[in-house]
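Much of the work behind modern protein science is quiet bookkeeping, done one molecule at a time. Below is the pair of lines this work produces for a single protein:

***
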Amino acid sequence: MQALRNIKIGVFISLVNILIQGVSVLVQNLIANNLGIVKFGSFGILQSDYTIFCALADFGMATLILAFFGKRATNGTLFTNVLQLRLFMTALTAIAMVVFAFTVRRGSDIFEGELVLALGLLLQHAFFDWYFICGNFWKKLLISKVLHTLSYCTVMGIALWVLKLDSIPLIALAMVIAALPAFGFGVGQAFTFKIFRIGLHTVKFFKLMFKSACPYALSSIASFAYLPVGLYTVAHFTTPEFLGAYNFSHKLVILASSLMVHFISSSLITLHQTDTRVLHLRDQAVFTLFIVAVTTPFWLFPQYTLRIVFFAAPWTPDVLETSCYCLRILACSLILQATRMGMISTLLKEKRTWLYGTMITIGGVINIAVCIGGASLLKAPYIPMLTLSGDLCLSLFLLAYFVKNRRFRW
């Protein structure tokens, strides 16, 4: 059963990434404790900015490489060209982030942090993940994640637990330093001096990839018009206290959402092994029920979930109540994502990327319009519900397309 194969591969990739994600949650506890609720909300904005620039640096290339080349991307001239492209995009985006910091964030309490994380773009611990996944180098991927986990624990533990850092720029710098060992491991496994040989073939490859990656980049960047928009909307239209409370639930749902991406990758891997154009409803149902079961604590026990995950946070009754309310609502996004996972994977496998990119962009535009328009008219508690409008629209778009083309079977 394809759904079970997707879950098996997706669980492995997710578990590998949970190593660092789990430690990241522990670090977020210490950061929240050191910064306090209000400054922790600002730190959430900084991390969201960084994530968006990471997506710009990727520009949909990781998905494109996985869907188009697979294992071939790890050998020969193709590998050299791919690595050259990744390095070029990362450097270009780091410069763009510096410009953004000076033009948009200058004067804010996260300005210096933006500059520090611009450097972090060049030293991402996950920079070589595409190489490990495309080549099915699962042991190397595991080593990379374990190495980063150990480094992250050590550096952030010293910075936050021993030195008690309560400065956003210094905490950002500690994060950059913590990424160095895993980045160095990736360099040792997937670096070649051939990347400095730039010829006419390299230029042609860049042009081809940019042209092919546009729909992937469009869908990747447009995805930030969904859940993250809620964070920026809250920051603009509500109080710093509400932002701080919202940031806890937002981080938890974003963590779960990021793990969903690995299931899309696993689905792509299994879809490449079959020629069927039919999407089975039983696979959709099994995966959706799997996600519902995993996320049950978000609805039934949000208070305990938040207290357990963010055990060191300086909770107050009002902050905890607000965060629980937001978590219950935002968690609905995970179910909507689960229902469309198979449809997204199928479109990507069939290279109908422009169609998917158009759908997700329209849904994102609707989400931004609803969030900004609704937040200007309604009170703060309604913003989490407004954030789900894009998710709902995208799921309906995909469902309508597959029903119209009679692509569903039991």
Q: What stands out?
A: Strands lie at 279-280, 408-409. The first strand starts at residue 279 and ends at 280. The first helix runs from residue 2 to 58. The two ends are 12 Å apart (CA to CA).
